[in-house]
Design brief:
It is a single chain. By secondary structure, this protein is an alpha+beta fold. It has a single domain, classed as Alpha-Beta Plaits (2-Layer Sandwich), CATH 3.30.70. The chain is 45% helix and 19% strand. The chain has a 5-stranded mixed sheet, with helices on both faces. Strand 2 and strand 3 form a beta hairpin. The longest helix has 21 residues. The protein starts with 7 loop residues before the first strand and ends in an 8-residue tail after the last helix.
Length: 232
């Protein structure tokens, strides 16, 4: 028990833990930094509604520019991580070119606090934190399979991480916005209808093509096929 503010949920099963921090956050003004953190909280609300069975607790913000999320189904962890990264790229100040490093780890989680998931315990928490600490530019993404990963799956995973990350780092704000909505299953017509200004379906298609959506979708399809053979 954590007192009135929240409780500790004992789970003892395989989860996905996503840990991130903002790149070049020190270059932001205090107001800009607060605005980005507010967007992460807004993303948490939207994603919890869209992924109610996966994102079981709010995204936790800690250390000023760090954040962490716990995903109940490992197969959903990469999509949620990309959604958070696309959200930050979409709604951050356009001149800042802000991004977030992100480390996704799959493994055993023993407990999850209901208010501050960053205080959770388990191998996935430790693996995600260590992977983030070990990231060095230009790489801004790490994906860590469970210790029991099936033969060949871990090698395949590590092979596509740099390419996927390079694609994401190349997004413009418009490409990030189109991808953000596409990751949620929106059609090109729906994306055009949700755009801040008038835009055609053909323009949306161009943004998605330049964002390399087919490559992102292929990586997600592989990940969501559960190549490590875990029970979801």
């Amino acid at each position: 028990m954590l007192g009135a503010a929240g409780m500790i949920i004992a789970v003892d099963q395989d989860y996905g833990v996503i840990t991130g921090d903002l790149v070049r956050s020190s270059a932001l003004s205090a107001d800009e930094r607060l605005g980005v953190l507010a967007e992460i909280k807004r993303a948490s609300q939207v994603l919890q509604a869209a992924f109610a069975d996966d994102l079981i607790e709010p995204i936790d913000i800690f250390r000023g520019d760090g954040w962490q999320a716990v995903v109940a189904r490992p197969s959903s962890a990469l999509r949620v991580a990309l959604l958070i990264r696309a959200w930050i790229r979409t709604f951050s100040p356009e001149t800042s070119d802000l991004d977030t490093r992100v480390a996704v780890a799959i493994g055993r989680v023993h407990s999850v606090p209901t208010q501050h998931v960053s205080e959770g315990d388990g191998e996935a928490f430790r693996a995600s934190g260590h992977a983030l600490d070990g990231l060095r530019e230009p790489l801004r993404m790490a994906l860590v399979p469970p210790a029991s990963c099936l033969p060949g799956a871990a090698a395949t995973l590590q092979a596509f991480v740099p390419s996927l990350d390079a694609v994401i780092q190349g997004w413009t704000q418009r490409q990030a916005r189109a991808t953000l909505l596409r990751l949620q299953g929106a059609t090109q017509e729906h994306i055009a209808g949700q755009w801040p200004e008038r835009i055609t379906r053909q323009a949306v298609a161009r943004h998605l093509a330049k964002a390399r959506w087919p490559a992102i979708e292929a990586a997600l399809t592989w990940w969501e096929s559960n190549p490590w053979g875990l029970q979801n």
